[in-house]
Amino acid sequence: MIIVVVGATGVIGRNVIPRLVERGHLVRAVVRDSKQMPFLEFAGVEPLVGDIFDKSSLDRAARGCEAALHQATAIPKSRDGDWSLNDRIQREGTRNFLAAAADNGVKRYIQQSITLIYGDRGQTIVDEEALPQPTSVSQSAADMEDLVSASALDWSILRGGLLYGPGTGREDAWRSAAHRNDLKLPGDGSNLLLLIHVVDMARAIVAATETAPPGSVYNIVDDEPVNYKHLFTYITSQLRSAEPAVGGPDFLPSLGCMNARVKKELPWQPSYPSYRSRLA
Description:
Elements: E1 2-6, H1 13-22, E2 26-31, H2 37-42, E3 46-49, H3 55-62, E4 67-70, H4 84-103, E5 108-114, E6 125-126, H5 139-149, E7 154-160, E8 162-164, H6 170-179, E9 184-186, E10 192-193, E11 195-197, H7 198-211, E12 216-220, E13 226-227, H8 228-239, E14 245-248, E15 256-257, H9 260-265, H10 275-278
């Protein structure tokens, strides 16, 4: 397939792009900075300078393509950061990209989303039939999904868990805090969190691009929802540091999700079924 991608140089995009190329797809990447073009060309990608907020540039990129992948985000580096650009990407940017795909005959559309739109579910494990309960932070992701599902394209939405792995800095932060004996549990540590390694998220996007049925929604998470106490104690015991203390910042909802649907319908299984194999 000829595939147009926005968000090609982000943490997920950097893992998706080479896998698409290796499988024989022709990839066209929309980039804002021309300095990124030499690397993409070397990777076997056709880069085009454009912007998700510039519909005309998306039209140029989408011409002749068979599939469109939306992986663009602008996540702030801190939980108290400015989310306005990310919100704009998910609303205005998604609207532009959907329109460019429709106007240029691109039928297949894959949207990266987040499991956080389910909201706080306590200790309940939910599947894709659970109705979203977005917070102020995840509302724009829910709006983005509404735009996608209302389109006439052959769309598929992939709701990813909390990303970890190269480029995220997440394990490094956990281990650095543990080395300082300063790894603190959010609240009492009982809240659930959903993890997905960046490589497994990328593999799921590739699988969905090739085989997902129109109108499908998938949770892309590993096989084992884990609470913070188990995860952080695993890390501190591994490093022989002090056990994690309670009372750390508690800013993510407690959420566990099933991944049974994606494993049944797509040729995908997580390479890292749980945090144990990745953090070994």
